[in-house]
Design goal:
- With 90 residues, the protein is an alpha+beta fold.
- It has one domain (12-88).
- Helix content is 34%, strand content 11%.
- The chain has helices at residues 13-26, 66-74, 81-88, and strands at residues 30-32, 38-39, 51-52, 63-65.
- It has a two-stranded antiparallel ribbon with strand order 1-4.
- The longest helix has 14 residues, at 13-26.
Length: 90
């Protein structure tokens, strides 16, 4: 999609429904990174300082907090859930 067409998401009710569903599913959940999502990794790596490559991860941790992933990776917020439900119910 062209960058100047990005405003269309603000008039699309599916965007608001998707944000509400994602926020309710990811809030309060911590996700463990798989071995192929950690850096450094490999058969010869023996260290314990591997980090996750997902958005929202912290250095040296292989867990990602769901709300941090939503805010950093998707720019979604749990505080928008009721607003979004109000928008899509109209």
């Amino acid at each position: 999609m062209k960058p100047w067409l990005g405003w269309i998401r603000w008039i699309d009710p599916i965007y608001y429904a998707f944000e509400a569903v994602m926020a309710s599913e990811f809030t309060g959940v911590d996700y463990q990174c798989s071995m192929d999502m950690t850096v450094p990794a490999g058969p010869t790596y023996q260290g314990g300082n591997a980090g996750c490559t997902m958005a929202g991860s912290t250095p040296g941790s292989t867990e990602v907090v769901g709300t941090t992933y939503l805010s950093q990776g998707l720019d979604f917020s749990y505080s928008h859930v009721w607003r979004n439900l109000g928008i899509i119910s109209q």
